[in-house]
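Protocol step 4 of 5: obtain the predicted structure for the target chain.
Materials: sequence only (see below). No template structures provided, no constraints applied. The aim of this step is simply to have a reference model before the mutagenesis design in step 5. Sequence pasted as it appears in the construct record:
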Amino acid sequence: MRRHRPLSRPARLAAVASTAALAAALTACGGGGGSSSGEGKTDPKAGKKTEISVNLTGEQAKAGEPVKVTLADGKLASVAVTDTKGGKLEGKVAADGRSWTSERPAAPGTSYAVEAKDAAGGTARAAFATAAPGKVNKVSMVPGKDTSVGVGQPVSIVFDNPVKNRAEVEQRLKVTTSDNTEGSWGWMRDYSGKDRVDWRPKDYWKSGTKVSLEADLNGVDSGAAGGFFVKDYRTNFTIGKNQIAKVDLATHHLKLYRDGQLVKDIPVSAGTPGGDKASWRGKTVLMAKEGTINMNSETVGLGSSYNKMVDYSMRLTWSGMYVHAAPWNADYFGSANKSSGCIGMSDADAKYVYGEAQVGDPFEIVGADAKGTQAVNNGYGEWNLSYDEWKAKSALAPGAAPAAG
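Step 4 output (structure tokens):
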């Protein structure tokens, strides 16, 4: 076995001095040009310094683009891109080993540090900061975190500002389920006039399914007039009991089913046919249990027809169709549709339904005495489309048209 002689004192001092010089050579990148570069430790075999270039540079770099780090010579072993808050952009090294690209875009108004290591042990560093966003887009999400909902409840996201880059946004939305439920995103203009995207299963959810949504939107540009997203969003929920309410406008009855078995048959009176007071038909979803509320016909375009406090109110549409107690209409329960559009029943029956109902329960309404089928955006009307029709509303569907505006 060959023995290596230890370095003499002068040689050791020279080695320490060399290491210090290499450490000082590590540089952070300045502005100017189309890339930033850094230098690192010398490759002892090749006698060359590790050098990189970064596609983003300076203090006002463009946000919304992936970070790309390119090695001048050799092969990359690893790249770390971190921000001042401890966040990290994950990425992958290209097959040829010469470059690395982040999986997510650089967020606006953020400072980043880049550290790259090559296969020979060399290190190079660089830094840049992105420009602050001129406009910020935010979202509202349903269902809320840690909630339990019925089998018809979609995941729904409404955006504060327009979303022109719908495909890019949709790619950042991930729904995970405990039983690999099949489903699709679909875009629409919400009843409020804002852009909205919902995720609907192919069929009603299975009771007990656990669902989570990861909306990794930080750094995504929503497009003209929309602005940047500056944070990620999360929600999770569980599917509750398998319960469906079926309303027949012809027989004037609401039948409540649980796990496919009839649990309650209730006489009702729905909207007066032949005009604006008629009810909507179709598969709708219970949006909210609002309890005792004031109902004023003028707020839904029906003039001075009514203005009263109503108990056990359960909202089905944004346009104002509810299921609720309507004791003033008792003469018509089970025999005629004489309401101003809602599905009314006795106080006792309304109290029962209110107690058993879950937000997200489907209400399937059939019959000729209707003013039409509930629109997709008037509450949650997506179940009135076939699954193929729904999938076609995804921005990632083959041949999908770009957003208008």
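Step 4 remarks: The chain has four helices and 27 strands. Residues 61 and 130 are 4 Å apart (CA to CA).
Proceed to step 5.
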